[in-house]
Design a protein that fits this description.
The protein is an alpha/beta fold. The chain has one domain: 3-Layer(aba) Sandwich (Aminopeptidase). The protein is 33% helix and 18% strand. Helix 7 crosses helix 9. The longest helix is centred in the last third of the chain and has 21 residues. It starts with 17 loop residues before the first helix and ends with a helix.
């Protein structure tokens, strides 16, 4: 796909109003179970973590509670690490990778770190395989004061209540072919804009924070992920998704400016992952393991960095 695609909702050149957003919502349907695929795995970790509910989505509070896994031995003298998944609900390996890390790897680092693992920030999006929330809002453009996205606002409020400074934040995402087939055309229609970049890299890459890029940290993560899956190559313009490549497999975004999840704190070490699950070279398990490799690679770097 290399040109603007027509979208069945709205009129060309006119941003959506409430009527169009309701039309969009009416087209969405549940395709998988948040309870079966996420909540049951969270509950299975109750012997290892304190499970805290930090909110619920108003569309159905019983169906869509929001949970975070908190270290049972939470010590304010330790560095605190946040892992977030499912900010975009359709990005499966972000959710499952966060859960896999909590289940199989977090215990190896508990002597040095406190963990907060929020595996699925957007459970309605998870069930309907959506980038947006029920109000056609992108949670990963909504991490700012008085956020219009309940998913983003709930996490911001919870973290504020803890009164703890984050030292590292791993935000787990995917880039899928459905970005071009559905989500970018929908975004262009909603906002009455034209998109001229339809590039989807084949492979894994990272997005660092422009204000705190931590190049060596990002490099260490890439080296660890290489053991699991392939890294996306830059295009003919030395870019990935329209952004300059700063080193193999790494680009930077202005996290606060765009309201990204990775910009919600002043953490020193921050990265956003982008797994490509539609590549013929990978399996779903490899995608989950790549997300885990990001966290373990980043934590190992922090533990060995003499400047930390």
């Amino acid at each position: 796909m290399n040109k603007q695609q027509a979208y069945p909702i709205g009129k060309q050149g006119k941003p959506w109003g409430n009527e169009e957003k309701q039309q969009w919502f009416a087209l969405q349907s549940v395709k998988r179970s948040y309870y079966d695929e996420v909540i049951t795995k969270i509950n299975a970790l109750k012997s290892d973590f304190e499970i805290q509910q930090y909110g619920a989505l108003p569309i159905d509070e019983q169906r869509y509670p929001l949970f975070i896994l908190k270290s049972k031995t939470f010590d304010h003298a330790k560095k605190t690490v946040l892992v977030t998944g499912g900010v975009h609900g359709y990005e499966t390996s972000g959710v499952q990778g966060a859960l896999l890390f909590a289940k199989e790897h977090a215990h190896r680092y508990e002597s040095a770190f406190n963990f907060l693992v929020a595996p699925c920030l957007s459970p309605w999006g998870y069930e309907t395989i959506n980038r947006w929330n029920p109000n056609a809002i992108d949670p990963n453009r909504s991490f700012y004061k008085n956020s219009p996205a309940e998913e983003s606002a709930a996490l911001i409020s919870y973290l504020s209540s803890l009164k703890v400074s984050l030292f590292a934040h791993f935000d787990l995402h995917e880039t899928t072919d459905s970005d071009n087939a559905e989500f970018r055309p929908a975004l262009a229609a909603r906002d009455a804009t034209v998109h001229d970049n339809w590039n989807i890299p084949d492979g894994f890459y990272l997005v660092g924070n422009t204000l705190e890029p931590q190049a060596d940290f990002q490099k260490a993560i890439i080296e660890n992920v290489k053991k699991v899956t392939h890294i996306a190559a830059a295009d003919e313009n030395s870019q990935l998704i329209g952004s300059p490549v700063t080193q193999p497999g790494v680009i930077n975004y202005s996290a606060r400016e765009y309201g990204l999840c990775m910009g919600l704190s002043d953490a020193k070490f921050v990265t956003t992952t982008e797994v490509y699950p539609d590549s013929p070279k990978v399996s779903s398990q490899q995608c989950n393991l790549a997300q885990v490799a990001v966290i373990t690679g980043g934590l190992d770097y922090i533990l060995t960095d003499e400047t930390v």
